[in-house]
């Protein structure tokens, strides 16, 4: 290694160490969400009397900031607190999925599967395989957050590598690479619906294919895997060498021999799971299947898509139970219930954080401050009248910034699409390219914002191995991914555009403005 390279690595390490040190001096994440909610209340009071010219594209009226400190607002806050908490979408996803995963984990089914997999996976290919699986998990909505990320930590630990590096790689694939996937998912038609309605502002009756970005997101999968592989193995894991593993790892699998009884139990349990998947596919096959919505399985309203989390529960609970009773780790049904109870016990800290996170996100949405931030930023970009290529990069950067505060991909695009899509159509840029630029920015900063609903959950995963893991630790780990994705993916999009490679089905780059 040259002296210049060593010096550059030292600068990066000191920078990340500073971020980690400063970040970990912040209060507990639950308190941060509480303080952030109080700040939102105060800002809503300060700006509630201000008249803004920004037009909310969802209503056609000027943006109005709602004062959350009025008597009616506070009364509504108190009366709706329980509903706000229990209706917090990530909470149900995590708890229901973890009930099934808990049975599969404590029975030994997952541990045996990991041991068998590690025997067949070359150590050098572990990282790209983890990121690949993380990217594919997007197809099952939020499954990656509750399955792939924690399992990546277990796999790395069993392989003798630092578990936090595995968690970071999986988090980068699940969340940072959210818009990279070669398998179409429900997010494609969801974004397309906003893109199409926005395009029709300029050209009435214009149609946008739901898979208008499919070729680009497929190619992006390989790009994100390679980039994430390099960052994990060359930057993140070397930096973690001095981080001591001091968490509760007694129940984690060791990389040892799998007994014949464990193998038989695993194969029988897996066969049961496969039979279940075949039955599900058979039930979903016909056009009149009750699992479809208007003939589609991938539509967000389709019962199949709405059933992803319960299906995750069943697809882990059933084989976990079968494995446990065959292998002898479960003697009675109470052993299975105890496994589910242990899984819930591990989620106690996350439930506390989720309570305050739910209240903050609800307040932020009700105040309209997020909508104001997104629309004003888009108007500034529009007023700058930059060249088309620079404007595309501007969309990526603005989206990445707004994403630090407004996490939902569809909610942001509902606000930004009616501004960006018509604006760029008048510059001769197609809605397909505008949507692709948005997706790059939306993904890149997911992994560095504590306001992302699943961010606290990833902190909990890390604390299983390193007890004093805090927000700063996770941000410092994920920042190299975020910067590399933002810069590299933007350049990848420009190169894709420059070469004229199709973005997706019936997609184009230009528009006769």
UniProtKB/TrEMBL annotation:
The record's listing under Pfam families reads: ABG_transport
Q: Which domain of life is it from?
A: Bacteria
InterPro entries, per database record: AbgT
Give the coiled coil ranges. Answer: none
Q: Which UniProt keywords apply?
A: Membrane, Transmembrane, Transmembrane helix
Presence of the UniProt keyword Zinc in the record: no
Protein name listed in UniProt:
Aminobenzoyl-glutamate transporter
Transmembrane intervals:
30-48, 85-104, 124-157, 164-183, 214-232, 264-285, 305-326, 347-365, 385-406, 413-431, 443-462, 474-499
**What are this entry's molecular-function GO terms?**
secondary active p-aminobenzoyl-glutamate transmembrane transporter activity
Q: What taxonomic lineage is listed for the species of origin?
A: Bacteria, Pseudomonadati, Pseudomonadota, Gammaproteobacteria, Kangiellales
Q: Name one GO biological process term.
A: p-aminobenzoyl-glutamate transmembrane transport
């Amino acid at each position: 290694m040259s002296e210049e390279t060593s010096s550059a690595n030292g600068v990066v390490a000191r920078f990340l160490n500073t971020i980690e040190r400063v970040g970990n001096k912040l209060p507990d994440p639950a308190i941060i969400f509480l303080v952030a909610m109080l700040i939102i209340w105060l800002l809503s009071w300060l700006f509630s009397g201000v008249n803004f010219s920004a037009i909310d594209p969802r209503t056609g009226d000027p943006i109005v900031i709602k004062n959350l400190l009025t008597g009616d607002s506070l009364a509504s806050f108190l009366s709706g607190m329980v509903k706000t908490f229990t209706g917090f979408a990530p909470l149900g996803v995590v708890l229901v999925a973890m009930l099934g995963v808990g049975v599969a984990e404590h029975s030994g089914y997952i541990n045996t599967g990991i041991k068998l997999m590690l025997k067949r996976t070359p150590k050098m290919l572990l990282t790209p395989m983890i990121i690949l699986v993380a990217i594919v998990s997007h197809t099952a909505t939020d499954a990656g957050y509750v399955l792939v990320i924690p399992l990546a930590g277990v796999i790395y630990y069993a392989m003798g590598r630092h578990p936090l590096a595995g968690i970071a790689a999986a988090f980068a694939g699940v969340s940072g690479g959210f818009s990279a996937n070669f398998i179409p998912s429900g997010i494609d038609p969801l974004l397309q619906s906003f893109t199409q309605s926005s395009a029709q502002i300029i050209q009435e009756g214009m149609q946008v294919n739901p898979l208008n970005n499919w070729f680009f997101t497929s190619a992006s999968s390989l790009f994100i895997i390679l980039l994430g592989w390099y960052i994990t193995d060359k930057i993140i894991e070397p930096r973690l060498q001095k981080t001591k593993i001091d968490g509760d790892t007694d129940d984690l699998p060791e990389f040892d021999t799998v007994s014949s009884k464990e193998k038989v139990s695993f194969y029988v349990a897996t066969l049961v799971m496969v039979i279940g998947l075949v039955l599900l596919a058979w039930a979903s096959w016909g056009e009149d299947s009750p699992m479809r919505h208007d003939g589609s399985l991938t539509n967000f309203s389709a019962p199949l898509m709405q059933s992803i989390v319960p299906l995750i529960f069943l697809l882990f609970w059933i084989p976990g139970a079968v494995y446990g009773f065959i292998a002898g780790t479960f003697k009675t049904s109470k052993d299975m219930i105890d496994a589910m109870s242990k899984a819930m016990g591990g989620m106690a800290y996350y439930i506390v954080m989720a309570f305050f996170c739910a209240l903050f996100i609800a307040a932020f949405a009700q105040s309209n401050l997020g909508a104001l931030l997104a629309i004003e930023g888009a108007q500034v970009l529009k007023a700058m009248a930059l060249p088309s290529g620079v404007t595309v990069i501007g969309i990526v950067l603005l989206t990445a910034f707004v994403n630090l505060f407004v996490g939902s991909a569809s909610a942001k695009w509902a606000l930004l699409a009616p501004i960006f899509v018509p604006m760029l159509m008048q510059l001769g840029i197609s809605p397909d390219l505008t949507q692709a630029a948005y997706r790059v920015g939306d993904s890149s900063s997911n992994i560095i914002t504590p306001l992302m609903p699943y961010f606290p959950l990833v902190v909990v995963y890390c604390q299983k191995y390193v007890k004093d893991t805090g927000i700063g630790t996770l941000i410092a780990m994920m920042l190299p991914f975020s910067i590399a994705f933002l810069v590299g993916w933007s350049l990848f999009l420009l190169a894709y555009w420059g070469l004229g490679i199709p973005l997706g089905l019936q997609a184009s780059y230009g528009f006769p403005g």
